[in-house]
Design goal:
The structure is a single chain. Helices cover 61% and strands 4% of the residues. The chain has 449 residues and is mainly α. The protein has a domain of 228 residues. The chain has a 3-stranded parallel sheet with strand order 1-6-2, covered by helices on one side. It has a two-stranded antiparallel ribbon with strand order 3-7. A two-stranded parallel ribbon has the order 4-5. 44% of the residues are buried.
């Protein structure tokens, strides 16, 4: 199907831009209230993490029963929610620089680690945000590529492109839908971690992986754990010796990145074994049995946090009612702001419980328009921006996450297609660039030399 040319031909760009900027100005700068709010969110994750691990210990140490099983499930749920919040709320907004201005204007109101380029970088990964992805890798993939090439071919999170292989598989549609649930519960480890690591290598000058990237593999092709098996086999059959070597090297480099997270997931299982070895295990349950329960509970926590994060993240920019573009555009132009709305979906919003369960990703439109704001600022901006979009005839999608996830599933399996267009607004010299424009400059304080 040929793409539509321009769908907002009647938009008054200057008036729209003026209203967007006025809405942001009305929100104002971040204040001490934003700092206290962040501190409250941090404390909430700490309560969930520590409380969850206490329950994990109690559930695995006692004689197995319905109560013990429910204790383990509650523990896994608390740990999983905390892990999601640490990523989507705290790590996300800090890594976008949401608190940087506040750190400069009022440094005493926030601990110094809540600053872009400091939070979770280096040894602080263990202290601030331990997950399958490096903060530096996520910054290269998400903050740069995804935000500045939203719903273009260069967007590494473009669902329709990343699942192109699934579209063409000669299997029943029911099996395609069933396969999506595997991604739901494993996606951070199986897809997002290796992909963010790939984008980090492309962003780093002199990276061995980027310099030796196989000619037969496009940069925009997604890399999953399955590619570490499939690609070297294909290369071997073609007699491409260098590619046969490349993929195991890539895998080992990525394995080094995720090893701390593997240790973290396995650590609870070591507690009963270590206590037993020290002669300090007073419970009737055998230490080995308790260890197996602990590792099962830790894995369950991972499956739950994967499912939670998938439902609130993967569907943000996918659906047959959202747009995909043939061109790139200038950041903070009228085209840019319109794309943020036409290619994003918000969820319900308005209070700390709902917003926290959504990881503050229910303000996706506003976040893409202004990535460096605090969670509380997005809550203030949302009704203003929704009104601006309605006034100017700009699409504003707001829907519960479950139907949005179904819309994403339909795009992933090929039953739904995003709306193709060249651009939303007829081009002006300062707005539209060619699709092969140079990538956005990456901040090397995060990605390294």
């Amino acid at each position: 199907m040929a793409p539509a040319t321009y769908v907002l031909k009647e938009l008054d760009e200057d008036a729209f831009l003026a209203d967007v900027k006025a809405a942001k100005a009305a929100v104002g700068e971040a204040t001490e209230a934003d700092a206290r709010h962040l501190q409250g969110l941090v404390r909430a994750t700490q309560v969930l993490v520590y409380g969850g691990h206490v329950l994990l210990f109690l559930g695995t140490a006692q004689v197995w029963s319905f109560t013990a099983a429910m204790t383990c499930i509650l523990a896994a749920t608390m740990i999983g929610i905390a892990r999601c919040m640490k990523w989507t709320i705290i790590g996300h907004h800090v890594s976008h620089g949401g608190y940087d201005k506040l750190q400069r204007s009022n440094p005493e109101c926030l601990d110094p680690q809540y600053k872009r380029g400091v939070f979770a970088v280096g040894y602080r990964r263990v202290l601030d945000w331990m997950d399958w992805m490096l903060l530096e890798a996520w910054d290269a993939e998400h903050n740069k590529m995804h935000h500045y090439f939203l719903s273009e071919d260069k967007d590494p999170d473009l669902v329709e492109q990343n699942f192109a292989l699934l579209h063409d598989l000669p299997i029943p549609q029911a099996l395609k839908y069933a396969s999506m649930f595997l991604w739901v519960v494993t996606w951070k480890f199986s897809y997002y971690s290796p992909n963010t690591f790939k984008e980090l290598q492309f962003a780093r000058k002199g990276s061995w992986l980027s310099q030796n990237w196989p000619a037969g593999t496009k940069r925009t092709d997604p890399v999953t754990i399955f590619q570490f098996i499939e690609n070297p086999v294909k290369a071997l059959l073609r007699g491409a010796v260098t590619e046969v070597i490349f993929w195991p090297v890539f895998f080992l480099m990525w394995l080094w990145v995720i090893t701390p997270m593997i240790v973290m997931v396995c650590l609870p299982a070591c507690t009963p074994l270590l206590l037993s070895a020290a002669g300090a295990w007073p419970f009737a349950t055998a230490p080995a049995t308790a260890a197996w329960r602990a590792i099962g509970t830790a894995v369950l926590a991972e499956l739950l946090t994967n499912a939670h994060s998938f439902v609130i993240i993967a569907c943000n920019h996918a659906g047959a009612d959202l747009y995909r573009y043939e061109t790139s555009c200038k950041a903070y132009s009228a085209e840019w702001f319109c794309r943020c709305a036409h290619s994003s979906a918000n969820f319900e919003c308005g209070n700390d419980f709902i917003d926290s369960m959504y990881g503050w990703l229910n303000y996706q439109i506003e976040h893409h328009m202004f990535p460096d704001m605090t969670p509380l600022q997005y809550r203030k901006l949302q009704p203003l921006m929704k009104s601006v979009c309605k006034k100017h005839g700009v699409l504003y999608v707001q829907q519960n996450a479950l139907p949005r996830t179904w819309a994403m599933f339909r795009v992933a399996v090929g039953d739904g297609k995003m709306i193709r267009c060249t651009a939303l607004i007829p081009p002006r010299a300062d707005a539209i660039k060619k699709a092969d424009a140079s990538p956005v400059k990456v901040d090397e304080t995060l990605i390294g030399a």
